[in-house]
Automatic annotation (TrEMBL):
Reactions it catalyzes: a ribonucleoside 5'-phosphate + H2O = a ribonucleoside + phosphate
Annotated protein name in UniProt: 5'-nucleotidase SurE
Cofactor: a divalent metal cation
Membrane among keywords: no
Main location: cytoplasm
Domain Survival protein SurE-like phosphatase/nucleotidase: 4-183
UniProt keywords, alphabetically: Cytoplasm, Hydrolase, Metal-binding, Nucleotide-binding
Binding site for a divalent metal cation: D9, D10, S41, N98
A GO term, aspect molecular function: 5'-nucleotidase activity
Function: Nucleotidase that shows phosphatase activity on nucleoside 5'-monophosphates.
Family affiliation: Belongs to the SurE nucleotidase family.
EC nos: 3.1.3.5
């Protein structure tokens, strides 16, 4: 059976990863858990100071699964596992279960999603799974969805990446599974404010208007599991910028 790296951005002690890893192990996968020591939400694909620096790790065992925390980000956890720092490299990567939804174009700031994209950049397929609640009551629902998604991507071309959002409700109360487009950036707005103690702080404002039908935001609100295939940075096959710059540079090298 395939070896699966499970990581997250909420930290190796977070309830989401503690619910997910044993559920995946029960499916027969060879599970490797490597995740940040602390909450690394919103770090994107950062993996600073990676080369030439010892990285502190802490491990414990729960439900027959070893959980390893590293002093670093989700993307770093994926990188370390893929280069063999924790034994044989994984065949697949599963990131989550993230506490709280990951919707819209801003998912590219998410450490959860970035872990999956990092895996794709290293030649693996991956799934990022989030649950629509800051205080989830139904982790097993998201774990079940994650397991089914893992089985699907194992048969797909290398580099396949899915970001999935799961409603926080019992499995038999899900409305279904739907492909979802990413909600447009204008659906959320960052505003500057101050904390009660006076320090500057960023807050998120959400409009009161209904979400756009067919987006992850809208379908998740209707009770559907949302599935969105994604890719990382990709070049635009257009040489107009280079041609224009070359013309502007004409004569400057003489």
């Amino acid at each position: 059976m395939a070896r699966v790296l499970i990581t997250n951005d909420d930290g190796y002690l977070a309830p989401g990863i503690r619910a997910l890893a044993p559920a995946i192990a029960e499916l027969g996968y060879d599970v490797l858990v490597v995740a940040p020591l602390l909450d690394e939400s919103g770090v994107g694909s950062a993996r600073a100071r990676m080369v030439g620096r010892p990285i502190r790790t802490v491990s414990d065992e729960e439900h027959g699964v070893t959980f390893t925390g590293i002093e670093g980000t989700p993307a770093l956890a994926v990188t370390l596992a893929c280069v063999g720092a924790f034994g044989p490299a994984p065949d697949l990567v599963l990131s989550g279960i993230n506490r709280g939804l990951n919707i819209g174009v801003p998912i590219f700031h998410s450490g959860t999603v970035a872990a999956a994209l990092t895996a794709a950049g290293m030649g693996l397929s991956a799934v990022a799974v989030s649950i629509d609640s800051d205080d989830p009551a139904h982790w097993p629902t998201a774990a079940t969805v994650a397991g089914e998604a893992l089985g699907w991507i194992a048969e797909e071309p290398v580099g396949t990446v899915l970001t999935i959002n799961v409603p926080d409700r019992p499995l038999d109360q899900l409305a279904g599974v739907r492909h979802a487009s990413l909600a447009v950036p204008q659906r959320t707005r960052l505003v500057g404010t101050k904390a009660p103690t006076g320090e500057p702080m960023v807050a998120i404002e959400r409009p009161g208007t209904p979400p756009v039908p067919g987006t992850d935001e809208a379908l998740l609100a209707e009770g559907f599991v949302t599935v969105t295939p994604i890719v990382g940075i990709r070049e635009v096959p257009d040489d107009a910028a280079a041609t224009a710059l070359a013309k502007r540079m004409t004569g400057r090298s003489s």
